[in-house]
Amino acid sequence: MLREHLGLRSVKDGCSPQGQCGCCTVWVDGAPRVACVTPVRRLAGRDVTTLEGLPEPTRDAWASALLATGGSQCGFCTPGIVLRLAALEGPVGDGRIDQSLLAHLCRCTGWQTIREAAHAVLDRSGTDGPGPQGSARDPGAAGVRAGLEGGVPQRVGSPVVLGEAGFADDGCPVDALVAVVDADGGYVVAESLAEARARSGKVQGRSTTIPLSHPVDAPPGEWDLTLVTTWVEPSYVEPDASWCVPGGTPASPYGNGGAFGGKLHSPVAADARRLADEHGRPVRVLWTREDVVRRGPKRPPVGAGINRDGSGVLRVAVSGPPFDPEAWAAVTRSVAAVAPGLVLEQVAVDGPPVSFDLRAAVWAEAAVLTAVAHHVGQGGGPVSDVPVEVVSPGGGRAIVRCRPDGTLDVEVAAGPALDAVVLRSYAIGAAHQALGWVGSEGIAVDPEGGVQDLTIRSFGILQARAMPQVTVGIDEGTVPVPVNGSDAVFAAVAAARWLADGLGPTWPADRTGAGRR
Description:
Distance between the termini: 28 Å
Radius of gyration: 22 Å
Helix content: 25-40%
Strand order of the largest sheet: 5-4-8-7
Order of helices and strands: EEEHHHHHHEEHEEHEHEEHEHEEEHEH
CATH architecture of the largest domain: 2-Layer Sandwich
Number of helices: 13
Shape: globular
Number of strands: 15
CATH topology of the largest domain: Aldehyde Oxidoreductase, domain 4
Number of domains: 3
Strand content: 5-15%
CATH class of the largest domain: Alpha Beta
């Protein structure tokens, strides 16, 4: 009702109808409620408030705070989070904020900067944000830094916080037909989203109780250190979407963020153009969360063995449609840059499609192994409070210490910062993703290669209450030109956390506290 009939585009659809991502949060009689599972018939005589309906001073306060702290990156999840937090009465503690955020998923920011923004508004502690910037920032420079970190052009500013970043489905013509995936894997096209979904014949997917699998064994032989990983969902929050007019250029599925590389080869834009030409009318193509999980690429599982001198073998799962040989050549070059002692091998497995475009895929695994290999055998057991360094193939550098209490000290060198708030936010977000990768993230895949975890809460993404404090220092003097820095942080945090956990041979190490349900 809110998006399709009233045109209120701040209300985002990240998982509908799962009711698990929080992107469609609104107020009903002043209390937050997830809209996608709330029937209109239950709201007769009640007040519904979307972000557009908040008082302007309230909207401005939250936009300023989240912009100042870096608490919004792509912006897709932010309107729902604003409504959730704006319903609180401050001042409040971290525990109350984190409890409120349990209903939400943010893949970009790592929660810490959202919490800082919440304190700035609810405690009235100011909104200048960390660092010397705050009020005197250059939006163009901030956008350049965000583009370097996210891999695609990106906007930074108050409109992004307020849900106005220009996501793929937000600008579609009002008279567009709607195409959704049907039960047979094709598209059904109808006059409305409700009609298309009703005609699709699909049954909502669920999560599963089957255990995670690790499809690639460690290479045979005696190794000082081994590691095997599982299937990991990139978990970008905006589902694949596009629209096109007949003969036109389709809208990019990249709304205002890079989706961690997960949409680079998404078919939705080509599908929108094809269907628009077939029907002679504008057509919207919308994937559900279940479609994204079934069809979208996964981080390739690996099985590795390495010796203390850095020599070893890294075996990489390949599945799904054949990939361009140049993609493997690029992976080989990247691994050689960070771990020259590792030999790469492909292992064909049954499973969902994998992609080497996902964040630091394969080279991060190689960098992690190389960064910790020389610690093996030095007394045994967990090793914390030591610097772990990774230099990415692109030249970004990160040094990370995992303190005994679990907090992280991160130093990132990515050339001139351009915007310290954005770089810090991306570093914290990368740390969040790395901690989940090592500790809790994975999706269950059956022996035939079918994905069984189809709900967004089943991916093992760390909730706000499970995210430790991250302190970020920015080194602007080591790298001469601006480069991506957060990918190096991603690999370095993973290495430091693994080392502090005792270098167990299997990831994820512990699903406890991740919010899996």
